[in-house]
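Hi U.,

Before I forget, here's the chain from the pilot set. I'm dumping it here mostly so it's searchable later in email.
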Amino acid sequence: MRKDTSKKKKGEGVKKGIYILPNLLTSGSLFFGFYAIIASFNGKYLYAAIAILASVLFDGIDGKIARLTRSTSRFGVEFDSLSDLVAFGVAPAILVFSWALRPYGRLGWLAAFLYVACGALRLARFNVQIDTVESRYFRGLPIPAAASLIAATVLFLHRLGEVGETKHLFLLLLIYLLAFLMVSNIRYHSFKDLNLLKKKRFSTLVGMILAIVVVMAEPEVMIFILAALYLMLGPSSALLGWYRKKEVAVSEKKTESLMR
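Structure:
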């Protein structure tokens, strides 16, 4: 009898229904991720990169919509994670392997696999710790940010004239670095506290408009720069925090020695 009761409880959420709008946006993110895989197989790496960035956009919107409409659910969290693994794990790995890692043989496909594995671990850890960690920060590099940097690198090199398949050692090292940062304990700002619905200063609006203009003037270059800056933000903040703690410890030791 207890088994039957537990089964009913597990299925109650689905039987009652699911929220359409946020899950529809998540489906849009999954669609662009799947399209990126197909485009990579066909050698259309530029289209694949754009599709991954579109997937990142949809992924960001669905979370905002769910929070604004108070339509978050356990089903939505699980669906979002599965979609993220395809769109930001498998799709970028296939893209970067087909585009730049194939010439490296075993090192190339191992790097792509490590990226997917670390992305899956990153998502699993996020789901487990979602109610216990500070919402303003992510623990480890978010997988959408890692996928964005891969896609932005494709766009940036295409802007520089790299058409078709390529081979750069820094791309191989970049994939290993992204895999490491995703499973690291380095904190990255989530920007969830950035509430655009509240009143802001007029200068904030002007600054945001100028930022949009700058990005749209050279989107391939600026998206790459922004993605790279976000990647470096975590390690830079961690080093700065470590240096400050070291300074405090040294000053405390000096104070103790003087008091003696």
